[in-house]
Structure formats: structure tokens, C-alpha cells
Amino acid sequence: MDLTEIKAAARKAAFARRKEAFDAGYPAQSAYLSEVLAGYRGVPLAGYMPIRTEINPLPAMAEAAAHGPVGVPVIQAAGQPLKFSRWEPEGALKDGPFGAKVPVVDDYFEPEILIVPLVGFDAKGGRLGYGGGFYDRTLELLRSKRATLAIGFAFEAQEAEELPLEPTDQPLDLMVTETGIREFNRGI
């Protein structure tokens, strides 16, 4: 099998684990995420609008929005980094690419913290995304300008013993699940 096939198989297995965790309906999914974000009040951050079986960061994002700018990703084009438009808990939204909602009015800014959705993660801070490379390109760009904290947010069940990673895959600094917080030593 080539790397593309290996990644596809890893994604399929991780999606199945994520769906099972999502269907189990874990309560207080964002309690640990709120705890992490409380230490960064006022720092510009970006979360995401959950789709399908993704773990829901919206309660923690709403808390953070009371203290500083919070954005959500807006896909510009294939092969391009994401832009982040300011999000408000009760703000007007429209349909964006891949079924995720985006703010009706574009109000772009550069976050210093990203809450990153994912399909799978490993114990070293490796992340398996959806395959478009959007977050890898975005994190690489933001990290070239300033320290940028990447917080993975997922169900504990999405952890994989090993992931097929490439040199372009951007690592996570923290991993938050419904069971706790893990920090990876990245020197930031």
C-alpha cells in the first residue's frame, strides 16, 4: 500500500471510532477545553463549527468570545490556507464549504490559538485531518509569523497508536478530549 492508501485506511478507522464516541453522547464535552482557554483570555483564537460527528467546541468558544476575538475557518480555495472570520455566539451564519457554517459578514483576523478539528491523533501530538491539508498550511503560515498554539479537540476514542504522518503535517501543542488535557513539549 502507498501512503495515500494507508492514510485512507487510518481515516476510515478513526471515523468509525469517532462516530461510536459521538453516538455515546458524552456529556460536558467542552469542560476541559474551557479550562484550557481560560488561561488565554483575550488572546485571538479560532475554533470551528462542528460538522457530522465532530466533538462540539461551541460552548467553550462562546465563553472565550466574552473576553476577546473568536473566529471560525473560512475556506478560500483548494490548496490555500484558511482565513478566520470573527464569530459571535448569536451571530448570523450562512452555509460554507463542506457543510460548515460561516459568518454572513467576513471580518477576518489572524488568531494566535487554533482549536483544531481532526479525525485521529496520537500520543506524540500527531494529527490526522480530512486530507485537504488546510490546517497544515494554515498552521505553517501562522507559525512562520509568531508563536501559534494548536489545540486538538476530539474524543479520546479518536486516538490511534500510530498515524501515517508526513513532514508537512503540523503537530499539535495540546490535545483536549472529554477525559482530559495532554500537553506536548513543543518548546513554545
TrEMBL record:
Q: State one molecular function term (GO).
A: 5-formyltetrahydrofolate cyclo-ligase activity
Task: List the catalytic activities from the record.
Answer: (6S)-5-formyl-5,6,7,8-tetrahydrofolate + ATP = (6R)-5,10-methenyltetrahydrofolate + ADP + phosphate
| EC nos | 6.3.3.2
Task: Identify the cofactor(s).
Answer: Mg(2+)
Alphabetically list the UniProt keywords.
ATP-binding, Ligase, Magnesium, Metal-binding, Nucleotide-binding
Enzyme group, top EC level? ligase
User: By its UniProt entry, which Pfam families does this protein fall under?
Assistant: 5-FTHF_cyc-lig (PF01812)
Q: Which domain of life is it from?
A: Bacteria
The family database entries (InterPro entries) matched by this protein are listed as:
FTHF_cligase, FTHF_cligase-like_sf, NagB/RpiA_transferase-like
Q: Which family does it belong to?
A: Belongs to the 5-formyltetrahydrofolate cyclo-ligase family.
Record protein name field: 5-formyltetrahydrofolate cyclo-ligase
The organism encoding this protein is Cognatishimia coralii
